[in-house]
Specification:
The protein is an alpha/beta fold. The protein has 2 domains: 7-250, Spore Coat Polysaccharide Biosynthesis Protein SpsA, Chain A; 254-334. The protein has 12 helices and 7 strands. Helix 1 (33-43) links the parallel strand 1 (20-26) and strand 2 (49-56).
């Protein structure tokens, strides 16, 4: 039996005592969207809330089915983007039409149940945080091994690059106080694959308190990676690198062409020096135990061509790690001037 608006619970108060807007981006969800909207409306307590469904350029009847829920009396706003602009763009479009003091993002497929919004609200209320982020369990047996592996790799990459105190940035349920989005969204550039990351980087650097809350997940996609395709994985990686650059000390400093040239020459010089050291050490005749140490350190047990390439790759890895750590140190030491994007916005909450 399908619930209508008059069947919804109205006795329990909103957890935070503020109006709540739940924004659901949807893409080709016509088969499930009506029932999923009903589930969300049934799960939310009280009456001071709204659901905003944004059809992100679907090729099926997602918008018509969403609008049918509105016609049935559910407190739903239905919006449509004519072209598929990405999940981030859909969420930001929905935010522009929202009226709540608290904003929740929730994936329309409901692989994460709508009750998770209440969990995050309770966590915000208990901690006084301005942002609450759902964290899915990678150990769940329902979560395919390829997705667990991919998510684990991406978590570690994000942690290393940005130093965010979060175990997960990509789970499809998040809750924000309105002011966080009002301040963060104008700084953002990514609208597709890694928009969650950019939003949380901005919120963190603006000085807002972010908390995590474990949420259940029911994986329903076909295949080990679901909707994720190689092109999307490449897009996620590219977006992540773009966000890293936009939030880096180098973007904030904006060194001139001359400085960039000298930095590139310095890096090239280190690589050449490393290769040169390896070649110089190769013909030198040393006595034990020094010869044994050099034999291992200089990779003399490998063919020369392979050894040279390993030295080059090793040099690149060391330079990359040093660059990332140097960027963190420079940001912490110097980056305070706000450029109006992600660069340099540290503890600027007040």
């Amino acid at each position: 039996m399908t619930a209508r608006a008059q069947d919804l619970p109205v006795t329990e108060p909103n957890v935070l005592g503020k109006r709540l807007s739940v924004i659901m981006p949807a893409f080709n969800e016509a088969e499930h969207i009506y029932e999923n909207i009903r589930r969300v409306c049934t799960a939310l307590p009280g009456s001071d809330w709204e659901v905003i469904v944004v059809d992100d350029g679907s090729s099926d009847e997602t918008f018509r089915e969403s609008d049918r829920s509105r016609e049935a009396g559910f407190p739903v706003k239905t919006l449509r983007q004519e072209l598929n602009a990405g999940k981030g763009a859909a969420l930001f479009y929905g935010f522009g039409a929202s009226t709540g003091e608290i904003i929740a993002f929730l994936d329309a497929d409901l692989e994460i149940p709508p009750e998770s919004v209440l969990q995050l609200l309770a966590q915000m209320d208990a901690t006084g945080a301005e942002v609450a982020v759902g964290v899915k369990s990678l150990g769940s047996s329902a979560y395919p091994r390829p997705r667990r592996l991919l998510s684990g790799i991406y978590r570690r990459l994000v942690g290393f690059l940005f130093g965010l105190p979060l175990g997960d940035t990509q789970t499809g349920v998040k809750v924000f106080r309105r002011e966080v989005l009002e301040r963060a969204i104008p700084r953002l550039a990514v609208k597709r694959f890694a928009f969650d990351l950019e939003l949380l980087v901005a919120a963190s650097r603006l000085g807002y308190h972010i908390v995590e809350c474990p949420v259940p997940m029911a994986y329903r996609r076909e295949g080990g990676l679901g909707r994720i395709r190689p092109l999307q994985m490449a897009g996620m990686f590219a977006d992540t690198l773009v966000i890293y650059y936009r939030s880096s000390f180098w973007r904030w400093l904006e060194p001139g062409a001359g400085t960039k040239m000298w930095m590139a020459l310095f890096a090239a010089g280190l690589l050449i020096f490393g290769i040169g050291v390896g070649k110089v050490l190769t013909p030198i005749v040393l006595q034990p135990p020094v010869s044994n140490i050099v034999y291992v350190v200089a990779l003399q047990f490998l063919p020369r061509a392979l050894r040279d390439w390993l030295l080059v790759l090793g040099g690149i890895v060391l330079l990359t790690l040093a660059f990332i750590q140097l960027n963190k140190s420079l940001l912490n030491a110097f980056a305070r001037r706000d450029r109006g994007d992600l660069a340099g916005i540290f503890n600027q909450k007040d």
